[in-house]
Every structure is written in structure tokens, then in C-alpha cells.
Specification:
Shape: globular
Number of strands: 4
Radius of gyration: 21 Å
Strand order of the largest sheet: 1-2
Distance between the termini: 36 Å
Helix content: 55-70%
Largest sheet: 2 strands, antiparallel
Length: about 260
């Protein structure tokens, strides 16, 4: 993918390779390939085990890993938003890639142990939601108010990394619990949206780019810009997503999603 973008440093259009909107699709492809080869080497990896529920230390280790990842990556690179191109095929965000691998294989672990099945483990919305709220407040405090109290950049980074680890861990399991409790159903509208979700993401950048660029210099709150861009581009993205489902490239995806809904 190549984009032509206005470069304020040179006053003209600069050509550069950019795959940011699809970076997770490239990582997902590699992780599925890794899982495929693991199954080939160890066929038992594709078999489910006895149902089990995670203990407290399980979530604690995930939080600690996230905290260490934030601290170490930022200390090494000095830029938590650093993007790296690998052979013009894969584009990764260094601070996120290890977490993406972690949660991909966590999903496989959850399948192994029958999470979300009847009578098996499901994150409790009642238990996780208060921790999610506390984590969000703490992260907000870390960014806005902690600079007035810290004595060094390292101390500030510690607060930010701790808040990020808390929020990410509680958000994953808290939102899973909330959606399982209140949104564990489907209908025709949700089924249609589910069947087009992949193709909508695949093409959304084309449509959201123009209103975002047009509103860039407007004196307006960022939330309202985001809301306007969503309202303008959602119908166009949905239509394009439905059309893409009729092409041979995505027809298999359409059948698989509709079948899983039924």
C-alpha cells in the first residue's frame, strides 16, 4: 500500500509506505500461521482439555506482563507509538506487538478450557466493572495529574505503565463480562453487521480519510469530529462491505459468518 500525503516539511506530497490501518491483519496472518505449524508439530494442541477457571494469579501475571512490556519498550525506544516496517510486507507497533501475541494465544487457551460455554468460566461483569472504572480513573490521573507529583521521567513512566496495565487487563475481561451478560444474543440486524464486519474494516480507511482530513483544522472538539466522521462514513462503509462480500475474495468469509450465526 502506498499513500500520497501532504508533507509540511517540504511543502509538497511525500510518498511513503503505510500499512497502519491493516497492521493487525498482517499480525493475525502470522499468528494463525504459527498456530497452524504448532498443531502440525503437536496435534494435541488442537484438542480441548477439561474445563477449568483461571485463578487470581493468572490475571495478575497478565497485568505484570503488560506493565513490564510498557516500561521496557518505552525505555528502549523512547517512543511508545513507534512503528516499524518489516520488508514492506508487515508493519508493527513495537509497544503493542507482544500484547497482541499474548491475547491471541490467550484466546486459544480460553478455547482449550471451554470458557464461555454453558456452566464454564465467564468473566463476571459485576466483579470486573468496578475495577475497570477504577483503572480508567487511575490512568486518567496518571496522564493529567501525576506530573505535578513525580520527581523524574522514570517515575512518570511507572505511573503510566501501571495505569495502562490495569486498564488493559480489566477492560478485556470486564467488557467480555458485560457483553456476555447483556449482548449474548443475535437478530437479523446484528447478524448482518457481523457478516460484514471484516469487509467494513477492510475498506473503512478509504471513506474515513476524507472527512477527517477536511475537519483537521476546524476549531471543534475532537469527539465531535470523530462523531461526524462516523455518521458520514458508516453508511458508505457498510455498502462497500456488502459489495465486497459478493466478490470471490470474501465470499467464504460471508458463508462462515452467516453459518456461525445460524
Amino acid at each position: 500500500t502506498r499513500y500520497y500525503w501532504f508533507n509540511p516539511a517540504t511543502g509538497g506530497a511525500g510518498e511513503f509506505f503505510n500499512q497502519v490501518p491493516f497492521w493487525y491483519l498482517g499480525m493475525l496472518l502470522l499468528l494463525y500461521a504459527a498456530a497452524y505449524f504448532i498443531v502440525k508439530v503437536c496435534p494435541s494442541y488442537a484438542q480441548q482439555k477439561a474445563p477449568s477457571s483461571p485463578r487470581f494469579w493468572f490475571f495478575l501475571l497478565i497485568g505484570i506482563f503488560t506493565f513490564i512490556n510498557c516500561m521496557v519498550i518505552d525505555m528502549i525506544t523512547g517512543d511508545e507509538y513507534l512503528w516499524v516496517n518489516i520488508g514492506y510486507v508487515l508493519k508493527i507497533q513495537v509497544s503493542r506487538v507482544l500484547l497482541y501475541i499474548l491475547y491471541f494465544f490467550l484466546g486459544i487457551y480460553a478455547w482449550h478450557h471451554h470458557w464461555f460455554e454453558d456452566g464454564c468460566y465467564v468473566p463476571s461483569a459485576v466483579k470486573w466493572t468496578p475495577w475497570l472504572i477504577v483503572s480508567a480513573i487511575f490512568l486518567d490521573w496518571s496522564f493529567i495529574h501525576s506530573p505535578a507529583y513525580v520527581s523524574s521521567p522514570l517515575e512518570f513512566l511507572t505511573y503510566i505503565s501501571l495505569g495502562h496495565a490495569m486498564l488493559l487487563t480489566t477492560a478485556v475481561f470486564g467488557l467480555l463480562g458485560i457483553f456476555y451478560r447483556f449482548c449474548n444474543f443475535t437478530n437479523n440486524i446484528l447478524g448482518t453487521l457481523a457478516s460484514t464486519s471484516y469487509t467494513m474494516y477492510f475498506c473503512h480507511t478509504i471513506f474515513i480519510f476524507w472527512p477527517s482530513l477536511y475537519m483537521m483544522n476546524m476549531d471543534m472538539h475532537a469527539f465531535y469530529k470523530w462523531l461526524i466522521a462516523c455518521i458520514i462514513t458508516w453508511p458508505l462503509t457498510f455498502i462497500c462491505g456488502k459489495l465486497l462480500l459478493q466478490t470471490p475474495l470474501f465470499s467464504a468469509s460471508k458463508k462462515a459468518k452467516i453459518n456461525s450465526i445460524n
